[in-house]
Amino acid sequence: MTSLPGGMPAASRDLLGHGPNPPNPHWPGGARLALSFVVNVEEGAELSLLSGDDRNESLPEAAQRIEGAPDPGMESHFDYGARVGLWRILDAFDRYGLKATFSCCGRAIAATPVLAAAPHERGHEVSAHGWRWEVQAGMQENTERAVIAATVDAIRKATGERPVGWHSKSAASLNTRRLLIEEGGFLYDSDAYDDEIPRFAPGSRHVILPYCFDTNDMRFAPGGGFVQAEDFSRYCIGAIDWLLGQPGPGRMLSIGLHLRLIARPGRMAGLEAILRYVAGRPDIWVARRRDIARHWRGCRG
């Protein structure tokens, strides 16, 4: 790292990326856009005194955090995703013949294996989303290594296959990507929000697939910007249309979903509008994230 006058450190990270001339990803069939739906499966992995954690979830669905006592109300908001949301979302993707990546927390799958088994049986990818629904930034390396191993094991037991993708909740640690590469079975991670084109981690064939927090149903949270179902569909379809209309090489877009959020009756129409809009279009490759990562490896030598 170089130093600026006065001892101020310069930025040490790569801010240029691909620059003004991003590589052509050559998406299959000449598609202009690789579209990835990611369904986050966190039900049963949220922090809860009732589950033996030292505190309750800090981001409850209701705008009230309970400290020092169990919070069964918070748990029931998450339970909705497992009891209702999973099946509603699976059926919607089946109706339009599209596949997604189900990003699953290990503890959720260990407690309720069908949360991973059912998507796997219908041809969706099941990837890893940490053990508990918790930020990994600052986690001790030996703890994080154990978290990765436990999550892989839970998903393998539920589906018969090990996950090849990883996505940390919000913030990875400084060690996460290195530990994933050292573990040896991961093809990609989604712990980046900085681009619209995949890339390799420095010095490796490990693929970094950027993710999005704006084309994401998490914005249905109070103050997040989405209220009506069409707020979500208009925003996501607007992003799709704008990317398709740009010159130059194709891009990648992720749409984030959560079992307990998008599956509510007042919101599902938004998801179905997007699925209907993209189904069967030759200019859009709707793909599981592992397929995008494998394609990137293939087209980049």
UniProtKB/TrEMBL annotation:
Top-rank taxon: Bacteria
Gene3D superfamilies in the record: Glycoside hydrolase/deacetylase (3.20.20.370)
Region ranges (Disordered): 1-27
InterPro entries in UniProt: Glyco_hydro/deAcase_b/a-brl, NODB_dom
Pfam families in alphabetical order: Polysacc_deac_1
Domain NodB homology: 72-287
Main function: Is involved in generating a small heat-stable compound (Nod), an acylated oligomer of N-acetylglucosamine, that stimulates mitosis in various plant protoplasts.
Similarity remark: Belongs to the polysaccharide deacetylase family.
Record's protein name: Chitooligosaccharide deacetylase
Naturally occurring in which organism (per UniProt): Rhodovarius crocodyli
